[in-house]
Amino acid sequence: MSIVDGERSGVNATAASLLGFLYWQPLSGHDLCSAVEMSVGNFWNVTRSQIYRELRTLAQQGLVEGGEVGPRRRLPYTITEPGRECFREWLRESPGPDVMRSPLLLKFFFGILLSEDTLRHFVGDHRVRHEGQLEYYRNLLEQIKESDPVPAHVVRLGIAFEEMMLHWFDTIPWELWSAPEHRHPRA
């Protein structure tokens, strides 16, 4: 929670991340969407509609201000001093526990009810995605490791995660799908 004009004004992590992007320079909603997509969007799920909704809320709270409409009707937002303090206060708060959300792992958890072919298809699709993400992170790390060492360290975790997922795919015990004693009676 932050104090803005004598009142408590809490910001959620998504709103706080937008304040973080605005901390050094004004950006339009479109620019914020691009910045999020290329950075924290790799580990923090934020939709375009959330970004625009949060910007409106942040403006109502006096934490950002809209500027003059520019080319392509883009409205740049600038963080206010109360917005800076709110962001710094949010940064100092404990982040709480991490939450892992993976539609693939959720399906895989109940995967004994699927055919092996279906599950192999899901895993194959995800393998391609994880291989692509790994390549993206490796290229990104080369670009930012000198100029942005702290975000680069986050990218290293992304690389480790992608390598771990690819290893996990290689260790799937596919023999369980052909062993009758492992099949669920309703499968």
Task: Explain this structure.
It is a single chain. By secondary structure, this protein is mainly α. The chain is 55% helix and 8% strand. It contains seven helices and five strands; from the N terminus they run ββαβααββαααα. It has helices at 13-22, 29-38, 48-60, 81-92, 103-109, 116-144, 149-170; strands spanning 2-4, 7-9, 27-28, 64-66, 76-79. It has a three-stranded antiparallel sheet with strand order 3-5-4. It has a two-stranded antiparallel sheet with strand order 1-2. The N and C termini lie far apart (49 Å).
Low-confidence stretches: 1-9
Strand content: 5-15%
Chain oligomer state: single chain
Write down the secondary-structure element order.
EEHEHHEEHHHH
Average pLDDT figure: 89
Give the beta-strand count: 5
Termini separation: 49 Å
Determine the fraction of residues in helical runs and give it as a percent range: 55-70%
Number of helices: 7
Radius of gyration: 21 Å
- From the helix content, strand content and strand pairing, which structural class follows? mainly alpha
